[in-house]
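Pasting two entries for a bug report.
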Amino acid sequence: HPSTASTYNNLGNTYNRKGEYDKALQMYEKNLQIRLASLGDRHPDTASTYGNMGTCYKCKGEHVRALQTYEKTLQIQLTTLGEQHPNTASTYSNMGSTYNSKGEHDK
């Protein structure tokens, strides 16, 4: 149910803010499974979940995995929201920050 997904998302956000990234990822994964089942893989809320997961991976220093997850976010957002949407811009920013953390300043 979408309300259950939102609860898992909120729990993930709380764990993320506390720096408990593995617990946050567990909550986001549960959220993702519900959103995929109820909304599909091309919905902005699904993209948001991928984005939250990408942030956790970045904070854990798992930059490649973060970028892979942000790429999923971006593809959904470009399709559903468009390139000029603020959420899409935020994903570009997150990706740029992750490349910067990796030392890939040219990207």
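Entry 2 (this is the one that rendered wrong in the viewer):
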Amino acid sequence: RVWSATDYSLLRSLEGQTGSVWVLAVDKDGDLYSTGSDDCTIYVWSGTDGILLRKLKGHTSRVTSLSFSPVGTLFSAAEDHTIRMWRAGGRPPLVLDLPKTDWSPRHAFTHDGHLWVSIGLIGMYGL
């Protein structure tokens, strides 16, 4: 659900994702929302009207982390030991395989976009 931060009213509901949603990301302008669930899918929604724009498949287990880069590229991580960079134009995502002992990575970008950091149970990764 999308709520107003000024009067706390419900603006819209994002409907259609079948699994339990575990994670949410919003791009820097609020134009895109992304949700990840335990059915291994990622949904990308319009931030202005809540319309489903894309359904991303590729992970083989629960999606645990999502983030948008400052230029709008979506990154995801899941319990399948991968981090994926979803590219525009329907091209296959770039995939970073993590050690099998690192099951639940989280990641974020610095505000200037020059650094991306992922942390898991056994260490940190960066680009």
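Dev reply: Rendering is fixed now. As a check, the viewer should reflect this: The first strand starts at residue 2 and ends at 3.
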